[in-house]
Amino acid sequence: MTVLREGALELTLPNGVQGKKFDGPSHGLSHCMKAVDFILEEPDRILFVELKDADHPHANSRNRKAFRNQLYSGVIVGDLVGKFRDSFIYRWAESAPDKPRGYYVLLAASELDKAMLLILTEELKRNLPVEGSTPGTWKRQMAAHCGVFNLATWNEHLPEYSVKRVVDDQKGS
Amino acid sequence: MSITRIQLENFTVFEKMDLELSQGINVLVGTNGTGKTHLMKVAYSACDISTTKMDFAEKLVRVFLPSGGALGRLVKRQKGSTRCTVDIHRGSSKLGISFTNHSKIPDSAKISGSKEWSSIPVESVFIPVKEMLSNAPGFRSLYSRREVHFEEIYADILDRAYLPALRGPVDQSRKKLLENLQKLIDGKITIKDEEFFLRNAQGNLEFTLLAEGLRKLGLLWLLIQNGTLLEGSVLFWDEPEANLNPKLYGPLIEILLELQRMGVQVFLATHDYVILKEFDLLCEDQDEVLFHSLFRDEATGEIQCSSKREYLQIHPNAIAETFADLYNREIERSLGEKTK
Questions:
Q1: What pLDDT tens digit does each residue of chain B (340 aa) get?
Q2: B330, A122: Cβ pair inside 8 Å?
Q3: In total, how many domains does chain B have?
C-alpha cells in the first residue's frame, strides 16, 4: 500500500493503484511549469491530485491570509487550472498512457462549507474545462471529471483514497 | 434603547420561545413556517406603539391580521382553552400582553408595562417582502378610510417613506451611506403627489418602471435621508434578498453593518446563502451580529431557536444544508462519470 505525503497531509492509495509525487525535485521544470502534487494511475483512468493545506498546524496568519485572498478573489481556480494544464502537457510530452483523467482538489480549510465547495467545483469544471463543456470539434479530452473537497468531504466521497493529517510534521506545504 | 429579549408562550407557531437579542444585527434563518416573520412582527408592533401610543393588542391585530380581527386566533392552535403571553424587553422596561384563544376583541387582552414602555419611544421600520412604494399613490388614504385587507406594515412603511427630509445638516456617516446608496441606484428618490421617482441625469423615472430590487434600495435611501433610521432606531427587514440581484447583496450588507455601527438595531429574516456569507465575510471584530436559527424540534415538533455569533456555528442551517445536498449530488454525479 503506497502512502504519499504533502506537508502534514498523508494520502493512502488502495492496492493496485500506482502513484507518485509529481511536484517534486524530479519534475525539473518547476521554474517554468506548474505541477499538481500527485499523479495516480488506476487501471482505467489517471487522477491528478492537488492538496492545499490552509489549516496546516504550523501555518501562520500570513499563509492563511494569502490562502483566503486566493479563495475569495477567484485566483485559486485559475491557479488550479494552470497546474492541471501544465501537468497534462508535461505528461503528453512524456507519452504517458492516454486514459480518462480526473482532477481532485483537496482544500483543507475549515471555513470551506459545502456551498463554497459546490461553487468551486462548478468553477473548476467550467474552466478546465471538463468533458461536456468543450467544443464539439474536440476529439480528445483533457479532463473527464473533477471535484473540489475539504478534508471531511474528501474522506466521505473518496474513502478508498483516505487522507489524514499527520500532526508531528514541522514543515508547511 | 434596543430590544433585548423576546419571550413568547403559545403565540402563533411558538409553544415557548425565549430569545436574547443582539443590540446590533439579528439574522433570522429557518425553513418556511418556523416563525421568523412572526418574531419580527411582534417586536415591531411593540416598537411602533412606543411612538403611536396605540393599544398593543390593537396593533397586533392590525399587523398580523387574524381572520375577523379575532385576537384569540393569534394563540397557538391546540385543543382546549389556551392562554398566550408575549413579553418584549428593552433592558429593564418590559411590555407584556396576555390573552386566550377565546379573545375576540383587543380589549379582552391584559397588557402590562405600556406606560413605562411608551415613556421612551423608539423609532422603528418594518420593510416587508413585497415592495410597496410603486403602489403608494392613494393607498394611505384608502387604508385610513376603508377596511382593506392589508397588514398594517404596508401602510406603516409608506408613512415612514413619505416623511420629509430631516432638518439640519446631514452628519458624515449618514452622508456616506446616502452616497453609497445613490451609487447603487444611480440617483436620488423624489416624491411628487404621493408618487415616488428615481431622479438622475436622465430625468425622473417613476417607480413602476424601476426594477423592483432597486425600489427597495430607494426605500432604504429615503429612510436614511428622512432620519427614520438614526441611532436608537430599529430596522426590521423581511427577506431583503427578494428581487435583488445577488451582486447587490454585498453593498447592501455593508450598509446594514454601517447602520448598526451608527447605533441602529437590525433584524432581518433571510433564506439566502449569499446574504449569510456576506455577513460572515464583511463583519469586523467590533460588529455585533447574532445568527438565530429557528427550527422544529424533531422529538417535540415545537419551534426552537439556536443563537450563534459565528456563521459556521449556525446549526441547524437550512440554507447551508440545501447547498450541502447539491454539493453531494454534484460530486456523486462527477465521480459517477468517471466510470463512463
A1: 799 999 999 999 999 999 999 999 999 999 999 999 999 999 999 999 999 999 999 999 999 999 999 999 999 999 899 999 999 999 999 999 999 999 988 888 999 999 999 999 999 999 999 888 888 888 888 888 888 888 999 999 999 999 988 888 888 989 999 999 999 999 999 999 889 999 998 899 999 999 888 999 999 999 999 999 999 999 999 999 998 988 899 999 999 999 999 999 999 999 999 999 999 889 999 999 999 999 999 999 999 999 999 887 888 888 888 888 999 998 998 887 554 4
A2: yes
A3: 2
Q: What is the pTM of this model?
A: 0.84
Q: Which residue of A has its CA nearest to B280?
A: A111
Chain A CB within 8 Å of residue B328 CB: yes
Which chain A residue lies closest to B313 (C-alpha atoms)?
A111
Distance CA A101, CA A50 (A): 14
- List the single residue in B281, B323, B340 with the smallest CB-CB distance to A115: B323
User: Does residue B62 share a domain with residue B33?
Assistant: yes
Q: What is the CATH number of the domain that holds B247?
A: 3.40.50.300
In a domain, B129, yes or no: no
Q: Which residues of A touch B330 (CB under 8 A)?
A: 118, 121-122, 147
CA distance A114 to chain B (A): 5
ipTM over 0.90: no
Sheet holding A163-165, edge to edge: A3-6, A9-12, A163-165
Judged by a CB distance cut-off of 8 A, whether residue A65 touches chain B is no
Looking at the structure, do residues B198 and B95 belong to the same domain, yes or no?
A: no
Q: Which residues contact B66 (CB under 8 A, 6 or more apart)?
A: B72, B73, B74
C-alpha cell at A112: 470551506
Q: Decide if A145 and B332 are in contact by the 8 Å CB cutoff.
A: no
CA A79 to chain CA centroid, Å, is 11
Record: contact B334-A117, CB cut-off 8 A: no
Nearest to B2 by CA among B295, B220, B259: B259
Separation between Cα atoms, residue A49 and residue A87, nearest integer Å = 11
